[in-house]
Amino acid sequence: MPKREKKYIILWVTQSISQLGSSMTGFVLTLWAYNQTHSAFAVSLMTFCNYVPYIILSLFAGSFVDRHSKKAIMLIADSLAALGTIAFFCLMIAGRLEIWHIYLVNAIVGCSNAFQQPASSVAVFRLVPEEKLEMVSGMNSFSMNLVTIASPVLAAFCYGVFGMGSVLLIDIVSFMAAFLVLLFLIKIEEEKDTVQKTSLFSGTTQGWQFLWKNRGLLVMMLTMAAINFFSRLTYENILSPMILARSGENNMVLGLVNAAMGIGGIADGIIVTMKKETKNRVRMMSGAPIVPILEKLVGTGVGSGMACMFLCTGTLGFIISCVSYKNKDIQALNEIE
C-alpha cells in the first residue's frame, strides 16, 4: 500500500473515533435538553442554530478554503468544536449549564463546519489517487453510519451509569487523538498559489461567475440547497424531540431509530466500496427528494409500530448516505478542478 494511502487510513480511523465522541456528545445533549425543557421546539433550536450559520457561511467558505491551508483550517475548526465541549464540561461541573449555552456553541460549531467540511473533502483528494475515490467514499459512508449505530448505544450507557461528564470526557480525549495525528503525521500537499494571504471573500465572485457559465451545476447546487434547507428546517430539525415526545421520553427508542438509520447507511457504504466507480455521480443524487417524505413516515412509524419505523429509518439512512457522499465527491472534484 502506498505511503499516502496508509496515512489516509490513519487519518480516517482517528477522525472516525473523533466523530464518535462528537456524536455521543450531541446525543446526550439532546437527551439533557429535552429532560430539562420537555419542549420539542427548544430541542429543535439546537439543530437550527447549527445549520443556519453553516448555510450562510458556506456561500463564501469555498473560495477561502481554496486559497488557504486545508490542514490549518481543519485543525482550527476541530479545535473550536473541542473548546465547545470543554465549555460544556466546565459549565456542567459548576452546575450552570443552560440551554442557551448549547445554542451558542452549536452556532459556533456550525460556522467552523462551513470551512472544515470543504477543507476535509479536498484533503482527501490530496491524499488518495482519483481511482480510489469511490472506495474512499464508501469507507467514509461506512464509518459515518457505524458511528450513527454505536454512538447512541454507548452514549446512553455512559450517560445512565457514569453521567453526562463521562461522555464529554470521551469526546475531548477522542479529539486530542485525532488532532495530534493530523498535526504531526499527516501532510496535505498544497498548490503554491493557494497558500497565500487573501481576504475572506476573495474569489467568491469568480466562483459565482463559474457557476453562472455552468448552468447545469448551478441548478443542481441550488436544488440540493433548497431540498437540504427545507428538510432540515422541518422534519429533520424536529425528528429527535418528536420521537422522544411520541415514545414517552424513551431514550432506547431514539437510540434504535438512530441505529436503524446507520444500518441503512452502512449498506450503502458496503455497496459503494465493493462496486466499480460510478461515472454519473449526479444520477446517484436523484433520490434526494425522497428524504423529507421518509422523515415524515418515520414520525408516523413511531406511533404505528416498530417495524414501520425501522423500515423507514433504514431506507432514509441509505438514501442520505448515497446523496451526501455523491454530493461531497462532486464538491471536492470542483474544488480541485
Description:
It is a single chain. With 337 residues, the protein is mainly alpha-helical. The protein has a single domain, classed as Growth Hormone, Chain: A. The protein has 13 helices and no strands. α3 packs antiparallel against α6.
Derived structural class: mainly alpha
Q: What's the count of strands? A: 0
Helix share of residues? Answer: over 70%
Portion in beta strands: under 5%
Count of helical stretches: 13
CATH superfamily: MFS general substrate transporter like domains
Q: Outline of this structure?
A:
The chain is an all-alpha fold. The chain contains 13 helices and no strands. 42% of the residues are buried.
Question: Helix and strand layout, with pairings?
Answer:
Elements lengths: L2 H35 L2 H27 L3 H24 L5 H29 L5 H29 L2 H21 L19 H10 L1 H19 L1 H12 L4 H24 L6 H4 L5 H15 L1 H31 L1
Helix pairs in contact: 1-2, 1-4, 1-5, 1-6, 2-4, 2-9, 3-4, 3-6, 4-13, 5-6, 5-10, 5-13, 8-9, 9-12, 10-13, 12-13
